[in-house]
């Protein structure tokens, strides 16, 4: 048992008033008590009252859910956009896995205790989950994704057509609803929990048509995935395709450049998650690649304007972006490089948008993200009894300064995964029986 005392608590939605003692029992949060109130002499002893506890006074620092990114390619780190190779083929599979192991370390050192994958090569998400569960490597909680699913001749499978690979990299393509059904089942059989599809072009990937998959193919994917308890996420930008994806049951809209009030209404009704991933578009402007990538300033400003409306309406917005490092030679201090602290920069980035509060933006990487990361009845991304004990302690008030989450070397004092310390920079403590 671990008791964290004298903590300010951000519970995933708001900062609780006062200070609190948070008790962890195994991999779960057992209790949250007001630190200023002494226990009642008439209180009945709990089953764990006689269990020796590790007691840690965090001295008024902030205890909060471990951060969660909801769009991550763990192996996308050494890809050269100018080399002509397809993603997932830039290095041997074993080296790509080593990159994934590195990404897990970077996430933990950044205060991120979970990620929902957005596609990878070589079953890396699923294999990382196994390695972490087997205590071979430390790492975050993972919702595993698989390949990018596409179709023959689509925007990811038409360039350099004379080069054929014996095995897929990041992208795999088939055609027709029955072939899609089989492919989805194969992905699930290899440990995939979220199917990723390229439903349409856009968001920096131009094509002569916005449609990348037929309607019956998307429907087959969604139906098959849901039959097996698996979610579906879609790279989709155009309004018509976004609405079609929502109608057919896609769970996560990645990017959604043309989201408007009608789309927001549809997302709320369906419970759809939205990952805007605007840092990627910002980066294209910074390096002068926006125009050639089909991105306009009006599109970017439109997405920024839609975020407060979507938040107010109740859309479950998420942080996460196309981290890779592909711009590291073009952009000084590339915010999308897989480096310690970069993932947390998104909070201040979105916090600058008028109409969004710091608590709302922070919930995109805690309470909202937890609802995607784990299926009910499990809970994560919140500080409440019964939730998974994935937590961090920061020597800062993140609601007063969202950028503090991008400075983990300065502010991050502890990372707790499944109730155990993964990173411990807290003062020494003693064993004893919790009072």
Give a written overview of the molecule.
The chain is an alpha/beta fold and 435 residues long. Helix content is 28%, strand content 22%. It is built from 12 helices and 19 strands. It has helices at 93-109, 124-133, 177-189, 215-227, 239-248, 261-270, 278-286, 297-313, 345-351, 358-363, 367-373, 408-411; strands spanning 2-9, 20-25, 28-34, 52-57, 62-65, 67-72, 112-117, 141-143, 145-150, 171-173, 194-198, 231-236, 252-255, 273-275, 316-317, 391-394, 412-417, 420-424, 430-433. The strands form 3 sheets. Strands 1, 2, 3, 4, 5, 16, 17, 18 and 19 form a 9-stranded mixed sheet that branches. It has a 7-stranded parallel sheet with strand order 10-9-11-12-13-14-15, with helices on both faces. Helix 6 crosses helix 8 (297-313). The chain is globular. The chain starts with a strand and ends with a strand.
Question: Which SSEs are present, and which pair or pack?
Answer:
Blueprint: E1 2-9, E2 20-25, E3 28-34, E4 52-57, E5 62-65, E6 67-72, H1 93-109, E7 112-117, H2 124-133, E8 141-143, E9 145-150, E10 171-173, H3 177-189, E11 194-198, H4 215-227, E12 231-236, H5 239-248, E13 252-255, H6 261-270, E14 273-275, H7 278-286, H8 297-313, E15 316-317, H9 345-351, H10 358-363, H11 367-373, E16 391-394, H12 408-411, E17 412-417, E18 420-424, E19 430-433
Parallel strand pairs: 1-4, 1-5, 6-7, 7-8, 9-10, 9-11, 11-12, 12-13, 13-14, 14-15
Antiparallel strand pairs: 1-2, 2-3, 4-19, 5-16, 16-17, 17-18
